[in-house]
Amino acid sequence: QQEKEDLEGKLKLREHLSQTAGKSEATPAPSKNIDSQMKQLQCKLKNSNNEITKLSTTIKSLRKEVQEKEERIQELQAKISHLDKDVSMKRHLIEDLKSRLKANQENEKTSNETLESLDRKVKTLAEDCSNKKTSIDSLKRRLNVATKEKSQYEQMYHKAKDELEKKDLKLTSLERKMIETECAMTELESTASQQLHGLAKQSGQALETLQKKLLLTNDKVEEFMTFVKALTRELQHSVQELRTKIKQAKKMEEVRACKKGLSHESVQLAASILNVSTTDLEEILEVEDDEETAKTKIEFEKDKEWLQYIQKLLEAQCPFASHLMDAVLEKLNEKKKLVEEYSSLMKHAV
User: Where is this region: Disordered (predicted)?
Assistant: First the structure.
């Protein structure tokens, strides 16, 4: 700008000089050097004007950049303030999390203590279970002893009954003798009658006690019979259920094998040939054969014979415990075999 002002001043001086020279006719015309200088100064003035315009444009662009940078600085300051707020919030969150972590650690300690106490309780419960198992075993032994004693008491009852019958026969014979000797022995009649009355009272008391014992033993025997019948029926029912389950599982395996062997298209073709649906065709495939029905009939007859055999054993005279035990064990072994077969079939099905 200073150079521009200097150049403009020089131009003004030159113009003034040229004007003064034009007015004074006496003065000679301007020289060539002055014109060349004028041209040079004009060129410099143009160049300086061009530079000034360039500089002004660069200044404007720089101002715009400065404004953009100031706006950027303001945005960054706003972001920094926001980040400071976030940092403070995160610090508060970290402190809160630390407090929660301490609380969780304390809760974990308490839970560990409760777990230890629960483990102790579990151990005590396991010990109680083992003790109960031992007590159950002892009760089973007592039950076996009671059954043996029951059989012994039944034998004693039969013996007492036989003795009572013998005593009844003796009493009848004595009464006959008393009637025969009644005429000859009038003096001994009173004493004999007293003795007979005493014996009758004693025998009546003995009979009452024996009748009470007999009633108790009959009740026990009836309870035992009902228990055995219910047990045998339940065994037979469970065995039948297992057989039906095994048959159903075998049927399902056969149907699956048929379905695997036959494709979907072949099943549809067979259904269309028979003029039935695919579900009806599957039911036809699931129908039992004659051998299976005959087998089920034989098994049903065997179960019926087994129940009749147990009924005969219960109605028979003692001892019959060993035969009854053998029959029940036979049915239990059959049930065990059926359970193993059913479990193996279910494993294959899975």
Answer: 1-38
Residue in the block written with tokens 């039906």: 244
CA-to-CA separations, 154 to 146, 149, 150, 158, 240, in angstroms, rounded: 12, 8, 6, 6, 36
Encode pLDDT of 33-84 as tens digits: 787 878 888 888 888 788 888 888 888 888 888 888 889 889 998 989 899 8
Angle at 101 between CA 96 and CA 107, to 5 degrees: 125
**H, E, C per residue of the chain:** CHHHHHHHHHHHHHHHHHHHHHHCCCCCCCCHHHHHHHHHHHHHHHHHHHHHHHHHHHHHHHHHHHHHHHHHHHHHHHHHHHHHHHHHHHHHHHHHHHHHHHHHHHHHHHHHHHHHHHHHHHHHHHHHHHHHHHHHHHHHHHHHHHHHHHHHHHHHHHHHHHHHHHHHHHHHHHHHHHHHCCCCCCHHHHHHHHHHHHHHHHHHHHHHHHHHHHHHHHHHHHHHHHHHHHHHHHHHHHHHHHHHHHHHHHHHHHHHHHHHHCCHHHHHHHHHHHCCCHHHHHHHHCCCCHHHHHHHHHHHHHHHHHHHHHHHHHHCCCCCHHHHHHHHHHHHHHHHHHHHHHHHHHHHHC
- Please give the model's pTM, rounded to 2 decimal places: 0.34
Q: How far is residue 167 from each of residues 173, 195, 284, measured CA to CA in Å? A: 10, 15, 76
Neighbours of 32 (CB within 10 A): 8
**Angstrom distance (rounded) from CA 316 to CA 113:** 64
* φ and ψ of 25, to 5 deg: -70, -25
> Would you give the distance in Å from CA 150 to the centre of its chain?
47
State how far the Cα of 323 lies from the Cα of 309, in Å rounded to an integer. 10
CA–CA dist 127, 134 (Å, integer) = 11
Query: Long-range pairs for 293-302 at CB < 8 Å and ≥24 separation?
Result: 296/243, 296/247, 299/243
104-162: per-residue pLDDT in tens? 889 888 888 988 989 899 999 989 888 999 989 989 998 899 888 888 888 888 888 88
